[in-house]
Amino acid sequence: MSEKTVRVPYYPGCTMKTKALGFERSAMDCAEVIGFEMDELKDWNCCGASYPLTKDNLMGLTAPTNILVEAERRCQKEEVDPNLLTLCVFCYNTLKRTEFAFGQDEKKLETINAFLDRKYEGSIRVIHYLEYLRDVIGFDNLAKMVKTDMSKYKVAPYYGCLLLKPQKEIGLDDPEDPVILHNFLDALGCKVIDFPAQVDCCGSYLVMREPEKVSKLSYDILADANEYGAETLVTACPLCQSNLDQSQGDKVQFADLDGMPVLYFTQLLAIAFGLDTKTHLLEEHHIDPRPLFEASGSSDGESK
Amino acid sequence: MLINPVEKDQKRISELELATGESISDCYQCGKCTAGCPASMDPAPSVLIQFLKLGQFELAKNAESIWSCMACLTCSERCPKNVSPAAIIEGLKNLHLRDMDPRVNLETMSRDFLAHSPQMAIISGFRKFI
Ligand code: SF4
Ligand code: SF4
Fold first, then answer.
1. Complex ipTM value
2. Would you call A163 an interface residue with chain B, using a CB distance cutoff of 8 Å?
3. Distance in Å from the first CA to the final CA of chain A
């Protein structure tokens, strides 16, 4: 699309290389169309997945700090803007809150630097792919790149928790009444289904200990979306995707609800761009989204 | 102000406040955290805090409901007094975990769960339950 491809330093995180490969691949393919390259950090570790909520848990900041140091070095060396792109909402939340904590408390940063024996200067700004689309590319410009007629799809934007909270630290959107995914879907030309459960929790990591509760919470969210007329849901979080999608295998809980596909927002973007989605692993979702989109021909490559 | 705290518990409550960075006395028991909590916790978040306000440290620490918190942060985000019930609950959980009292058993954990869950679920679960 654009003349010169911008390279943006990118931190994938563990899930993007395993269970959410389709998320990463679709995001990268779309980035190419839009005109930027997700430039993966060479040396990265797990961010720890959940940001420690208690003040005494400094240990939980070491893993994300290692990543921020790596990103800082890369940006300084290559003289690019000190942004670090993320896709996974858990990584985004953990890294963003670490960035915020250091901004508030220099002593904390000194302690972690001393412990790690590295020197993070605090320059990195953690951003989410959605944020990049909104603030750098612009949803208006995104809309001009859409090739597929998306107007027949009724899509519910599902936000969950960690993309938005705590608002004071993340600052992406209003946690009670967010619009970023709505506006994204609008740009694609979808019929956006606004539904009350869009910010309700799917149960998160409780799936390890109380999967029945996660089934129930997922059911409540999907039943709500269904009631408001949605055919499919989009999310930015691999754990929300997994919980909402896999829970539908619970035939008792989901007895009165037809299967509803849960897509990564980039998988939908790829369909809107008319890209070949064969490598985007749509078939790996528990509820196969392909039948819904087959009419557009997008699963077979270019559509006109 | 804490009402009739047992002396030993008063000390442990102060330690919990120090560890979490939260101030228990700030909570004025409006119940907004509980109203929005999706985890159907019993005792509910505001009740756990009430125990602490009353000096009943053990009641809060040993409440089974703390293990059902999924750190969605709805409570912390909505609290009009800037208290984070989620942080207090995590502080209580940490006391168990640091005492080598885990809440999931790796030996009996379903292989299916480990094979099919996204990494963040497994890693977060390890952090919150082990
Ligand atoms: S919302 Fe805040 S002030 Fe109200 S009961 Fe909960 S912790 Fe206390
Ligand atoms: S963070 Fe925990 S206590 Fe607070 S609303 Fe969510 S599940 Fe309930």
1. 0.94
2. no
3. 17
**Which residues of B fall within a CB distance of 8 Å from A15?**
118-120
Q: Is residue A139 part of a domain?
A: no
Q: Is residue A167 domain-shared with residue A249, that is, in the same domain?
A: yes
Task: Report pLDDT digits (tens) over A7-63.
Answer: 999 999 999 999 999 999 999 999 999 999 999 999 999 999 999 999 999 999 999
Give the pairing type, strands A154-157 and A191-192: parallel
The H or E element that residue A77 is part of is: helix A62-78
A190 and A113 in a common domain: no
Residue A23 forms contact with B (CB below 8 Å): no
Note whether A104 contacts B: Cβ–Cβ < 8 A.
Answer: no
Interface test with A, best of B119, B120, B123, B124 (most A CBs within 10 A): B120
Check pocket membership of B26 for ligand 1, CB cut-off 6 A: no
Is A303 within the bounds of a domain? no
User: In terms of CA atoms, which chain B residue is nearest residue A221?
Assistant: B38
Q: Residue A58 belongs to what domain range?
A: 6-129
**Bridge-based pairing state of the strands A191-192 and A83-86:** unpaired
Residue A77: CA atoms inside 13 Å, Cβ hemisphere, count? Answer: 8
Backbone angles phi, psi at A151, to 5 degrees: -65, -20
